[in-house]
Amino acid sequence: MEFLIVCPLAFVAGFVDAIAGGGGLISLPAYIFAGLPVHAALGTNKLSSSMGTLIATIRYSLSGYMVRTFVIVAVPCALVGSWLGSNLALVTGDFAFKIMMLAVLPFVAFFVLKTKDLDAFSKDEIPCNRALALTAGIALTVGVYDGFYGPGTGTFLMLLLTALAHQDVRTAAGTTKAVNLSTNLAALSVFLVNGVVLLPLGLTAGAFNILGNYMGAGSFKKKGSGIARPIMLVVIALFAAKLIFDIFIS
């Protein structure tokens, strides 16, 4: 029953994650709904999602979406930010943070609805040093968020890298995938050391997640921001639903 619940949703999560990030909003609840304890759900989800993200990262790299300078700057900053966020989460509560995110999401959704073409920002070129500095700052900030709370990290990276750092959608997707893969692997290593990863379920779900990521990356390659934008809105809606449940119901 766990396999029947988790595997199809792991495929959907992989498809969504490859295009716009936020696949964890689908896959993690699937593990919990299947009856796994919270830590086992987190650890096993990291295994399956890391497998899928690896495939999407490779495909984006082979498609030429990864600009080396952006990746070299973003990945270390995201790892530092994730470490800072994780330590911050140990000493503070997240209730106020959830309220803040719930207040911010309508503005994010409005921005995505208003922006018909996310590639439009890249047409207004900015100096390379400024783009690198903004990429580093975004990776660090979102890395802190990822370590502290996490849902929708890939979506926020995509939006900020396009809107602020003026990366085109495909370059932003490549940078986002490199960041996601590095932070996922770092978190997975912790879960594996602590023995909370269910390997048979995680590896099987990972195969479905790989297929979803592969197909999602193919769709993104063909349609770009045309498919990324509606998927982002779906992720934002899922995130809002999760926040409302966490704050008012659970």
Q: Mind explaining what this structure looks like?
A:
The structure is a single chain. This protein is mostly helical and 250 residues long. The chain has one domain. 82% of the residues lie in helices and 0% in strands. It has helices spanning 2-20, 24-33, 38-62, 68-91, 95-114, 128-148, 153-163, 169-193, 199-223, 225-249. The radius of gyration is 17 Å and the shape is globular. The protein starts with a helix and ends with a helix. The model has no long low-confidence stretch (mean pLDDT 90).
Q: What's the pLDDT, averaged over the residues?
A: 90
Mind telling me the C-alpha Rg?
A: 17 Å
Order of helices and strands: HHHHHHHHHH
Number of domains: 1
| Poorly predicted runs of 5 or more residues | none
What's the layout of helices and strands?
Elements: H1 2-20, H2 24-33, H3 38-62, H4 68-91, H5 95-114, H6 128-148, H7 153-163, H8 169-193, H9 199-223, H10 225-249
Give the tags.
82% helix, 10 helices, globular, single chain, 250 residues, mainly alpha
